[in-house]
Structure formats: C-alpha cells, structure tokens
Amino acid sequence: MNKEAEVKYYKIGEISKICNIPIRTLHHYDDIDLLKPAKVDAINNYRYYSHDQLLEINTIKYFKIAGFSLNQIKKLLERNDLQYSQQMIKCKSEEIETNILKLTALKNKLNLYIQKMTSNDQNVTNSIDIYVKDIPVSYVAYSRYTGPCNQDEFYLRFTKLANLVEKNGLQMTGTMMAIYYDDYTNFDYAQADIEVCVKVGENREYNNVVRKFGGFLGAVAYHYGNYKTMNQTYKKMLDWLEKNNLVFVGGAVENYIIDPIITSCEDEYITEIILPVKKY
To answer: CA 106, 112, 117, 118: dihedral to nearest 10 degrees?
Structure first.
C-alpha cells in the first residue's frame, strides 16, 4: 500500500478555514521557511498541508499571541535546543509580567483621573472649602531647577519629568505636581525655584531621582478653573490661615488633577493646592 495515500492532506484553503489563519499568512510562512507545505503539486503548484501540521500551525499561533517574533518561533519550532527554548520562554514570561505591571499602573492612573473628575463638583462657585490634614508620606520622582514660570516652561519641565520616569523604569501612581520654593511675597516669574514631581510606586529614595514626599501638616483647597485666577485662591487660603492661627511655612504644592492632558477647556481645570503649615 502507498503510505503517502494514507496521509490526510488539506488544501491551503481548507487549512486556512480549519485553523482560522489567512491564506496570505500561510504564503508568507512558506516564503520565510517557517512553515513549508507538506507537498506541492508539481503540475498546478497547489500547496497541501498534512494532518501533523495542524499542531505546528497552532503552536505558531500560540507563540505569536505570547509575543514571540517569527524568527524566534522558527527557532522554537526546531525543538532541538531545550535550554534555548526554556530560556526564551522564561524571558518572555518575565516580559509579560512587566507589561502587566505597566498596564495595571496605567489602569490605576486612569481610574484616578475618573475618580477625581467624578468626585469634585464641577459647578464652580465663588466659595472654596479649606481644611487641614496630615499629608501622608509617599515617594515622588522629581526634577528641581530655577527657570521661567510660564506655560511653555511647564510643558518642558513635565516632559523632562515623564522621560525621567520612563528611563528609570518607574510607574506613576499619581498626577503631576509642582512645588514652589520661593517666597510668595516676592515671587520672580523670570527665575523661579520650582520642582515638578509625580508619585511613583517606590518605597525608597535613590539617585536624585526619587525622594520622600509628605509627612507634614497641610492646608488644602481646590482651585476650579484656569491658572490665571489661582492667586485669588491662594489669597483666600492665606487669609484663612491667619484667622485660624496657622502659619504657611513655604513650599506650596499644586496637584494638577484635571489639567490640559485631560481637557482643553481651561474652565474645567481642577488643581489641589496644599500649603504646608504649622500652628502659631
């Protein structure tokens, strides 16, 4: 009996439907020697695939979903270097775990935006609520230097901060913040000592990249609307501090909860202002 006659072969269209893989993809796999047809008709050049190749196709699809390149998959399909396969799969597993952490951090950040957008009353009035609370300790990636205080400069500062976070493999867990270290009674917009920072998922300080933030008593208020009128909120807060026997000790913090990243409408901005204070 002819053994070849016993083998079940599938035309390329059949194998495409069975395995849910485009015909053009099978052509490409043939061209790059990843998956050659079991036989090719010498007369009409039709490609035929064997029953055993169903497993190979599913294996290729599995490794593709896992994120392996076609060249890597070709090596894995050879199955002649177990140590290589183990190392490749281990590295890919670690890469997937890293991506899960990144996506989880991104999800948490987006949820933070949603929480802040829904928990703050967007119907702005002329009154503001001011209260005092302990600012808990956290860790922030930061960049501090003296320079102009204007919108263009802040875009540059925050871009550099985002790059710093990315280069150091950090995960942002909060929104962007700015800390103003100059004397508010004699503020120089041309040469302002400003630190931009953002909370990250770290629990230690290191390399002038991450530092401890918080651990102080803060007077807190929310400013609604564009940044040009923020000085009015500051004035109300400082007046409130004086009436309540509190002293502003410097380093005003602005936490940009709803900012130009979220909306282009300045009237919808929400900024949390935190003034470190102590009692008389």
So the answer is: 120
Question: Domains (ranges, CATH) in the chain?
Answer: 3-89 (1.10.1660.10), 131-279 (3.20.80.10)
Q: Note the pLDDT of residue 6.
A: 62
What is the per-residue pLDDT across 93-102, written as a single tens digit (0 to 9) for each? 988 888 887 7
User: Is residue 107 within 8 Å of residue 136, measured between CB atoms?
Assistant: no
Q: Quick check: 210 and 199 in contact, CB under 8 A?
A: no
Q: What b/e sequence results for 28-65 when a residue is b if at least 16 CB atoms lie within 10 Å of its CB, and e otherwise? A: ebeeeebbebbeeeeeeeebbbeeebeebbebbeebee
Kindly state the tokens that stand for 36.
């050659």
| pLDDT tens-digit series, residues 193-210 | 999 999 998 999 998 999
Model pTM score? 0.63
Do 159 and 252 contact (CB within 8 A), yes or no?
A: no
